[in-house]
Amino acid sequence: MLMRRVDMRVRRGRSAAIVILALCVIAVRLVHPPASRGGDPHGHILRALAAEVPRSLPRSALIVRRLDKPPFWDSCDGRKGTFGWDPESILVTVRLADQPPDDGVVIERTLEDAGWSRVAQVSATPPHTRWTTRLQTGQTAQLDVTGGKPNSTFDYVFSVQPPGPVVRGC
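Given the sequence above, the corresponding structure tokens read:
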């Protein structure tokens, strides 16, 4: 008889724990909607983008900093209808070691040899150019290069938009 009461209490406790856990999962899903299909679940796109980095830098480039950012499910302050994927990106800051007389020409030749196509001269001061190429995965990648004299430091921002909805309405 005593064993049955203990058994019933254990079953009730387990049932209550399961119900509480289920309610917690539901609450989390309501507060943070699940990410849509898309993104880069196995990192294939980011790896393809990363493969472009060494080909795209001049031989004399010394890497000062590198930051790889996978796609991020985001929104405009959580507002409904604005959820989507931020682009995945790789930021590389380099310093050209041999200080060529015209850094821009060296960078331009290196990028053209690596298969990048110049899209725009975004600004002249500071120098900022935009390039595109097709990745092995089929996506179009973008590259923004900024910087230059006096210390021959340049920022290369490689980016690609993963499949799926894009953050919008901000």
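The first helix runs from residue 2 to 31. Try to locate this feature in the token string yourself.
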